[in-house]
Amino acid sequence: MLRTIRIGNGCGFWGDNVDAPITLAERGRLDYLTLEYLAELTMSILAQQKQRDPQAGFASDFLDVLARLTPILKTQPQLKIITNAGGINPSGCADRSRSILDGAGVRNRRVATVTGDDLLPHLDRLLGEGHALVNLDTGEPLQSVRDKVVSANAYLGARPIADALASGASVVITGRVADASLTLGPVVHEFAWPWDEWNRLSAGTVAGHLIECGAQVTGGLWEGWESMPDPAGIGYPIAEVDSDGTLRISKPEGTGGGVNLDTVRQQLLYEVADPAAYLTPDVVADFTSVQLGEIDKDCVEVRSARGQPATSSYKVSIAYRDGYLCSGTLVVLGSNAKARRCGEVLLDRVRRAGFDLEQTHIECLGSGDVVPGLVSPISRQAREETGAAREIVLRVAARDSRKEALERFAKEFAPLVTSGPMGVTGYTTGRPAVREVFAYWPALIDKAAIKPVVSLEGSA
């Protein structure tokens, strides 16, 4: 049994740097490579794709990454891959992955899937059994929007990932699992931690949380980004975890970016409601107990994580149709007031065409509208009076339940180039697209209602 394992995360979301997993696997001396593709909106997009094509519904970027990883898998027999790229269709993703591995002559790597998170096929049964899936923000029961639901997925935990590894899998493809569980699964498997050793489970969860967003812990979004070395070649993170739960966060040698106390503690608190009670399917982690220390260049030690028993519920991410959205931009040479007037004229023309839009928003980018309050009203006025702001990007957005209303809205941008004031330009990409809106519905469900399923190819 390993006393220390090295887990690197080469992807923080679907759309992340496609070269990062390759560099990380080549230089990271890894035991495990994790790839995190899913966000709440991603699940609804994948659900829509699968409705159109039963063979789709997974993060297709993973297949390209896997094909590029096959030469590395041949030379690094210990390297295993854990990913939630399966999305709505883990089995379809696994089938395509098997074909890629076989085609590259990597036939000795077994592929497993973790399913059971997709509640959409069982939604009416669950509602009938009394699982109201109440919106955590509003208190409304899901039944109020049931006919609009396009996806519903429970955040599974680390146990089925550990089970898949124990069954002999080298590539584990999941649907929706908690992000940190992608790391905790292999840690528990390697160290045989009991599922009620809450402090150790918390330590593994901290490791997963620190690396789950990719380069955010190695210099991305850091206030020192402009001065860090080689931002174009920023390295992706490695969590080196000991059997006692102590861990170190680093990055591959020779890569850009940086790992320091600031990057680590800022990522530790990223997307955290209560640092003393970070809720996951596996453990309630207390981030306030964590101690950090820089022990070398680009290496921070993390220790003393404490945890409490996990809750009896899984979080459920539900997406439902909620109308349409359209937004477009123009460049206006001149003042904020001039740009805003152009936006008002655009909306007035939509009203005259017979559509009173349900929601609209005008932003004058470059005048302080992006972060309201950051630019004080006095300084904004001074900029207007002195002419300091000489060009504004006008962004106008609208949301409505009627698609035809937004289609008319989209037609009102181009006319301002010739019928508006002098200095309107930037209209070079055609009419803005009208997009369907998927609203987010957070809920909880009793764990007893969900049965994760591990499937290993070739097993009965």
Q: How would you characterize this protein structure?
A:
The chain is an alpha+beta fold and 460 residues long. The chain folds into two domains: 271 residues, no CATH class; 123 residues, 2-Layer Sandwich (Alpha-Beta Plaits), CATH 3.30.70. 30% of the residues lie in helices and 25% in strands. It contains 13 helices and 19 strands. The strands form three sheets. It has a ten-stranded mixed sheet, sandwiched between helices. Strands 5, 14, 15, 16, 17 and 18 form a six-stranded antiparallel sheet that branches. A hairpin with a 2-residue loop joins strand 11 and strand 12. Helix 1 packs parallel to helix 3 and helix 3 crosses helix 4. The radius of gyration is 25 Å and the shape is globular.
pLDDT averaged residue by residue: 94
Q: Would you tell me the structural class of the helices and strands? A: alpha+beta
Helix content: 25-40%
Count of helical segments? 13
Strand content: 15-25%
- Number-wise, the strands total 19
Query: What is the straight-line distance between the termini?
Result: 28 Å
Largest sheet: spatial strand order: 11-12-8-7-1-2-3-6-4-19
Count of the domains: 2
In the predicted model, the low-confidence regions spanning at least 5 consecutive residues are none
Shape from CA axes? Answer: globular
